[in-house]
Design brief:
Rossmann fold; seven-stranded parallel beta sheet; 7 strands; SDR
Length: 264
């Protein structure tokens, strides 16, 4: 059942070929927004994703394979969006990678890649999207941060630094657009069972010699009081709200959806 509250708008969601990004892309498409998908994956599978979204929600889609660690590819993606749809109305900065190690053992190239993809890419997409948004006097920028944008965890120095950076960048963007029709907010999910988190579950199961289910329970028990994963669909619903007229004075917020993680 399609709503039409975002009819005629275009949403670019980075890292949207799976997980949280795909959940948000589908939620925005359900409201009538055309979708620009970005991320890695099998060409045929991505084509099938596009077809499904177009059929399910009667919107148009394009896919761009920009590597979010490369500024020139981000520029090309933004230009392709402009050529096809006339610009970006809704920008969701979601692309992210993870690496886990103690600081003294953290590979320098992994640090650089995480900061580039999880933080710097949002600067590039935002700087390129803002002029047209300001001209139209309407825009929504949603940065997918993390519970780790608000609190720390051992062995995740680069990820925590990048996500704290995203929360700070969100606040500055919101202040610079405060007297316009453009808003910028961050969503801070707790554990979501994405391919990224599934890898951590698998590693835990292997290391501790336990079942996948027990590994999931252990992971949640450490951080997330609800004992349940947040779903991409729930995050999509929140993104839709942040795009609504009702959220036009929600500005510069880091909105937790984390089963109580950061309430502790």
């Amino acid at each position: 059942m399609q709503n039409t509250s975002l009819q005629g708008k275009t949403a670019l969601v980075t890292g949207s070929t799976s997980g949280i990004g795909l959940g948000i892309a589908r939620a925005l498409a359900q409201q009538g927004a055309h979708i620009v998908l970005n991320g890695f994956g099998d060409t045929a599978e991505i084509k099938a994703l596009q077809t499904t979204i177009e059929k399910d929600f009667n919107v148009k889609t394009i896919y761009h394979n920009a590597d979010m660690s490369k500024p020139e590819e981000i520029v090309a993606m933004m230009q392709a969006t402009s050529d096809k749809f006339g610009g970006v109305d809704i920008l969701v900065n979601n692309a992210g990678i993870q690496h886990v190690a103690n600081i003294e053992d953290f590979p320098v190239e992994k640090w650089d890649a995480i900061i580039a993809i999880n933080l710097t890419s949002a600067f590039h997409t935002t700087r390129l999207a803002l002029p047209a948004m300001k001209q139209k006097n309407w825009g929504r920028i949603i940065n997918i941060a993390s519970a780790h944008g608000l609190v720390g965890s051992a062995q995740k120095s680069a990820y925590v630094a990048a996500k704290h950076g995203i929360v700070g960048f969100t606040k500055v963007t919101a202040l610079e657009t405060a007297q316009t029709g453009v808003t910028c907010n961050a969503i801070c999910p707790g554990w979501v069972l994405t391919p990224l988190v599934q890898k951590q579950v698998d590693a835990r199961a292997a290391n501790e010699g336990i079942s996948n289910d027990d590994a999931k329970k252990g992971l949640l028990a450490e951080k997330q009081p609800s004992g349940e994963f947040v779903t991409p669909e729930q995050l999509g619903t929140l993104a839709v709200f942040l795009c609504s007229e009702g959220a036009s004075q929600v500005r510069g917020v880091a909105w937790s959806m984390d089963g109580g993680w950061t309430a502790q």
